Every structure is written in structure tokens, then in C-alpha cells.
Amino acid sequence: MYMMLVCIIACGLLILNIVLVSAFIHSNREWLLGFYADTNVQFRIAQAAQIFLPVIMTMFEYWLFDRLIDRAFGYGRETGPS
């Protein structure tokens, strides 16, 4: 049951991050990719960003959540560096 919940939350976060990254790239295309004259290069860079950035954002969100939970409940105080 726990793994199913984690998978559902991960899918939801990934979909949200895909929407956010896609909206950001499309609204700022000239500012982000305007210095590339070739439209094929612009398309490839935007496509790579739309694939990799949501995954990286999801991993960062899980790391941040884990870090905040550890700080809130005091886990890892004995084993962490001082």
C-alpha cells in the first residue's frame, strides 16, 4: 500500500513538473533560446529540457521532503556530521 501511494504521488509530481517546465519554456522561448539562430537547435534543446528538468525537479522535491521530515522529527541526529 505504501509503495502504491509513493508511485501515485511521484506520478502526480512528475505531471505537475512537466506542465510547469513546459509552460516556462514556451513562455520564455525567445529569452532562453533566442541566441540560437537555427530553429532545429532550439527545438532539440527545449525538448531535452522538457524531458530532463521535470525528472530532476521530482528528485529534488523528494530529497527536500525527506530532509524536512528528518529535521522535523529529529531523525539522523546521532549519525549525522556535527
Defining key terms:
82 residues, mainly alpha, elongated
Q: Could you walk me through the main structural features you see in this protein, from its secondary elements to its overall organization?
A:
This protein is 80% helix and 0% strand. The chain is mainly α and 82 residues long. Helix 1 crosses helix 3. The radius of gyration is 18 Å and the shape is elongated.
Q: Could you give a short account of the major beta sheet?
A: none
Structural class: mainly alpha
**How far is the N terminus from the C terminus?**
36 Å
Total strand segments: 0
C-alpha Rg, in Å?
18 Å
- The DSSP helix count reads 3
| Strand residue content | under 5%
The H-and-E topology, N to C, reads as HHH
- Round the mean pLDDT to the nearest integer and report it: 85
Specify the overall morphology.
elongated
Q: Indicate the low-confidence ranges by residue numbers.
A: none
Q: What's the short story on this structure?
A:
The chain is built from three helices and no strands. The chain is mainly α.
Annotate the secondary structure layout.
Blueprint: H1 2-27, H2 29-33, H3 39-73
